[in-house]
Specification:
This protein is of the alpha+beta class. Helix content is 29%, strand content 19%. It has helices spanning 2-5, 24-32, 86-99, 116-132, 159-173, 189-193, 201-204; strands at 11-15, 47-52, 68-69, 72-81, 137-146, 151-154, 177-179, 220-221, 224-225. Helix 3 crosses helix 4. InterPro entries: RdgC (IPR007476).
Length: 232
């Protein structure tokens, strides 16, 4: 767990919905419908993702109020995945063809080709059997929902995790969500939510500044400056 281990990466999101429209009871109700369906040992599913308990990873939260700290609700996203290495799959498929007598030379030197439908059928069956004997990898990512501001902290900076979170969040809550970055953090979203006028023109008029550290003395001749440090 990243919070408990001391290492922490954050991505902040802002829900563009007034707080009064997202009561805690509603959050818990919607979350309950999006808990993960864990992948079992003999499961043939390759991937499953959903919400879970932040400490145990279980697909349920029996006491949501115990996970509220100050005005922040702590929960997690769990992603279970099974993956068969491509090279291993190719080797196993070739071995399966040999056992079934396909793609082998006969006494006349002719190779018995495998039709596309037969090949796909064998491949699907082999993949299913390999998935049943594969262990799933399990990943937990903590999420902090600030109930007093409707700001959400995701404890990961991975673009893949961010994409998974945004998709799952929209499916579960159907709320407008925006990633806070240098281009959006200065916007007064509270005024927007209240329906008040927001002047974005100052942001449109921002001009780049020079970070050049050129030595002006190199360009000085006879007490005058012929060239100035370039402005980019």
């Amino acid at each position: 767990m990243s919070i408990a281990s001391g290492s922490l990466a954050l991505k902040r999101f802002q829900i563009l919905t007034p707080i009064k429209e997202t009561p805690f009871s509603w959050i818990v109700e919607r979350m309950a419908k999006a808990f993960i369906s864990p992948i079992g040992l003999d499961d043939t599913r390759e991937e499953s993702i959903g919400f879970c308990h932040p400490f145990t990873g279980e697909p349920k939260i029996e006491d949501p109020f115990s996970l509220i700290y100050e005005n922040a609700f702590l929960f997690a996203i769990r992603a279970d995945k099974k993956k068969i290495p491509a090279t291993f799959m190719k080797l196993q498929l070739r071995a399966a063809f040999e056992v079934l007598g396909h793609e082998k030379e006969d006494e006349h030197g002719n190779v018995r080709k495998v039709g596309k439908k037969v090949r796909e059928s064998i491949k699907d069956r082999l993949k299913e059997e390999l998935l049943k004997s594969s262990l799933p990898s399990v990943r937990l990512i903590e999420v902090i929902w600030h109930l007093d501001t409707n700001q959400i902290w995701l404890t990961s900076a991975s673009s893949a995790v961010i994409s998974e979170f945004e998709k799952l969040f929209q499916e579960a809550f159907s709320l407008p969500l925006i990633l806070l970055n240098p281009g959006t953090s200065s916007v007064d979203f509270e005024r927007i939510q209240l329906g008040l006028k927001v002047d974005l023109q100052p942001l449109h008029d921002v001009s780049p500044v020079s970070f050049s550290t050129a030595d002006l003395k190199k360009f000085q001749t006879k007490g005058s400056i012929e060239n100035e440090a370039p402005v980019f």
